[in-house]
Structures are given as C-alpha cells and as structure tokens.
Specification:
nine-stranded mixed beta sheet, LD_TPept_cat_dom, two-stranded parallel sheet, peptidoglycan L,D-transpeptidase activity, 6 helices, L,D-transpeptidase catalytic domain-like
C-alpha cells in the first residue's frame, strides 16, 4: 500500500551521478536482436506476480496496489526506504516493483522528468564515476554496447531536470540479486524482465519523484 509517509514525508531520493549513454554510439541492435535479448532475460512461462528464478523476496515481485489519492496517473514514485518503484495508473491503483538504489551517499533526491527512454541502451560511465572508482570503470570509458551484460540492461528511463540530463537512470540490471539493497553508483535498478513490462506503460514527459533513503530520514529526526 502506498503510504503518505513514503510518498510525502520521505521527500525525493535516489540516484546519483551514474550512467550515461555515449553521444555517438558505434552500433545499434536490430529489432530482431532486441527481441532475442528480451527472450533471453525473460524466464519461460513468465508471470510477473509469481515468476522468481532470481530468488527475490516475494514483496519485490510486481504487484498492483492501491495508490494514495491525488497522485497523477503516469508518474513514477520511488520509495528509497522500502525499495519500491510505483507507477501510478488510472483508477486509483499503481503497479509496484522492487528496486535497488545507490550505495553510500550517492543519492540525489528530487523531482525529475523522464525525457528519453531506450530499449537495450548503450552505457558509458561518467567522468565522476571513473575518477571515483578507476579500477572499476576506467576500462569502460569508451562505452559498452547493448546486451544482457550491459549495466543498463534491457531498458532505461533517462532523468532530466528541465533540459539537463542528470545522468541518472531507472534501468534494468544484469544483477537481480541486488534488488532490495543499495548497490548502484546512483541509478535505480530493476529486474530486466520487470522493466520490460513497465517500459511501454511509461510515457516521456512524465515525472519521477525520488524519495529520501532511510539514512536521510534518520539524520533529520
């Protein structure tokens, strides 16, 4: 159930300066390749509510829930405390998904606009990521081609403030074991099969609200 505490009292949160796509990608996958990858990362006989080869806690499986009054259909709310992403639907409901959020202090709470969405995106670490963790990211400074092992996974929503790309993403992840935890360099991670289902329901131009994590709440109390 979506609570006022999570949507109002927790005020904005989540990602941080992570993942971007190269401005001039060298190759783009064909529709046939994208379909093949979709099949590769989607379990056989997939049922979002019950399929769980990833060993997730059952609460992180997709579930339709009742939304708070006054929330705008189409918008996304990320509860960084409970590790949930909510996509608000018409009729007072929302689809809820489990997510992983940024580790440590790599949070940028706020209100963002989804101005771009991509199936099987490219990925390039930001210069800040390379400077912070050169052993982890320097070898990828020229970018990573799309595919099931790409850090942005199967789908990505690109978060902007005005016309400025924040390099924050809501994206699929090749590391589903991280769902429910704090693992990323700033982005919100989802199971790849889950974000494949969510992707066509999300329009560009909608708002994504990123609420504060538990450490931020404790610091204010």
């Amino acid at each position: 159930m979506l609570t006022r505490r999570h949507f109002i009292m927790t005020s904005a949160a989540l990602f941080s300066p992570p993942i971007a796509g190269p401005l001039m990608a060298s190759t783009w996958p064909t529709e046939a390749q994208k379909a093949a990858w979709d099949a590769e990362v989607t379990p056989p006989n997939y049922d979002p509510a019950t399929t769980n080869p990833w060993g997730l806690h059952p609460r992180f499986l997709p579930q339709q829930v009742i939304a708070n009054d006054g929330l705008k259909p189409g918008d996304i709310h990320v509860d960084a405390v409970a590790r949930y992403l909510y996509h608000i639907e018409e009729g007072g409901t929302a689809m809820r998904y489990g997510v992983a959020i940024a580790r440590g202090n790599l949070y940028e709470p706020g209100t963002y606009t989804i101005r771009r969405k991509v199936r099987w995106p490219h990925w390039t670490p930001t210069q800040a990521m390379i400077a912070r963790d050169p052993e982890l990211y320097a070898e990828f400074e020229n970018g990573v081609e799309p595919g099931p092992t790409n850090p942005l996974g199967s789908r990505a929503f690109y978060l902007f403030v005005g016309n400025r790309d924040t390099y924050l993403r809501i994206h699929g992840s090749p590391h589903p074991e991280s769902i429910g935890g704090r693992a990323s360099s700033g982005c919100v991670r989802m199971v790849m099969a889950h974000i494949i289902s969510l992707y066509p329901q999300v329009d560009t131009g909608v708002t994504a609200y990123l609420y504060a994590p538990e450490d931020a709440i404790a610091a204010r109390s």
